[in-house]
Specification:
Elements: H1 3-8, H2 11-24, E1 32-35, E2 38-41, H3 45-55, H4 66-80, E3 82-90, E4 98-103, E5 106-110, E6 117-122, E7 127-134, E8 139-143, E9 147-155, E10 157-158, E11 163-164, H5 172-190, E12 197-203, H6 214-231, E13 248-254, H7 263-277, H8 284-288, H9 295-327
Antiparallel strand pairs: 1-2, 3-4, 3-9, 5-6, 6-7, 7-8, 8-9, 10-11, 12-13
Helix pairs in contact: 2-4, 5-7
């Protein structure tokens, strides 16, 4: 598996994303205007209209509301370090020309140009669109005969690696270890743990031929069935096998588990703690509800909520603000700034 595939299939990562999405979707997204001493809720009609677009993206089958938009942004940003919304307008960008909001299925930077371009696919046909920088709109735009589309980006681009980086890059080794532990445990139990012993049955009749006759085969089969009944199942744990077969010798050799097999749980717990601690405000207590009735658990939960709101501000709200102001800068009526 690749690092991305490990992250996508990790249970701790799934728990984190589910909790973060739940917390953010409990919040209300509003528009405020900067004012001396305080920020006031905006009555700007354009701002309200922009929120209406987010709450009703007019796109079927997905997304149909802002909750689905937020879910996609959090998942894609966390897993891949990138996500994008495409605001689609009829003919030209304008308040009365809004058609829908699409979610990018793939996003790639084309760097072989003076200005970077974004190659985007969306919709059921996975058609590719190229978005180029538009100085007038201060944004990336793609125009066709019937539509103009504007790109709202949510990015975590790592200059050192010259690529997008997901939120879990710093703990990828713990994620991989936890996945290996889970796979080991699954295989261990799906294969009925390990055989508890090896049983060897030897005939005491030295003159027995290589091929058993009907009577000898029957005796052998009865012996096998007797052993099977004596040792299988939880109710026979620890019992001794006693067979009245003087013409046969039965040798039972127990198989011992490795002494460090129980370390699986300890390593799993360590991985959980490291992965959760990688998140702003994260802890195992807050994500898994451990000690949920203690005072410390309440503090940890508050830390998680506050950290998640900071995350939403950073990766969702700020890019939406920049997009809103840049794409509609000519339409926005400023009063002490918006």
């Amino acid at each position: 598996l690749t690092d991305e595939e490990h992250v996508k299939t990790n249970t701790s990562v799934a728990t984190i994303l589910k909790k973060q999405i739940s917390v953010i979707n409990q919040c209300d997204i509003i528009v405020k205007e900067k004012s001396i001493g305080s920020d006031l809720r905006s009555e700007n009609k354009l701002a309200k209209l922009f929120l209406q677009w987010l709450n009703n993206p007019n796109c079927r089958p997905y997304p149909v509301n802002i909750n689905e938009i937020i879910k996609n942004i959090i998942e894609q940003y966390s897993l891949y370090g990138k996500s994008a919304l495409i605001f689609v307008f009829k003919k030209e960008i304008g308040l009365s020309n809004f058609e829908c909001i699409q979610i990018a299925k793939t996003l790639r930077i084309e760097k072989n140009y003076t200005e970077p371009q974004y190659s985007i696919t969306f919709g059921s046909d996975y058609k590719q669109y190229i978005f180029k920088y538009d100085k007038l709109r201060n944004n990336y735009i793609c125009s066709s005969e019937n539509h103009t589309m504007a790109l709202c980006l949510f990015e975590n681009f790592d200059i050192d690696n010259n690529d997008y980086v997901g939120s879990f890059k710093g703990v990828i080794e713990y994620i991989k270890l936890q996945n290996f532990l889970a796979k080991f445990a699954s295989s261990f139990y799906s294969n009925f743990c390990v055989p508890s012993s090896i049983i060897t049955i030897t005939s005491n009749n030295k003159d027995i031929p290589l091929v058993l006759n009907a009577e000898e085969q029957k005796s052998f089969d009865l012996t096998i069935e007797k052993i099977r009944q004596e040792i299988k199942g939880a109710s026979n744990q620890g019992k001794a096998v006693i067979l009245n077969r003087p013409n046969m010798t039965i040798d039972i050799k127990p198989i011992q588990l490795p002494a460090n097999a129980s370390d699986n749980i300890a390593f799993h717990n360590l991985c959980c703690e490291k992965i959760y601690a990688n998140i702003d405000g994260g802890s195992r207590s807050s994500f898994e509800g451990l000690n949920e009735y203690s005072n410390n658990a309440e503090v940890k939960l508050i830390d998680l909520y506050e950290g998640t709101v900071r995350l939403a501000d950073s990766i969702i709200i700020n890019p939406l603000n920049r997009f809103f102001i840049s794409i509609f800068k000519n339409e926005i009526i400023r009063k002490n700034g918006v």
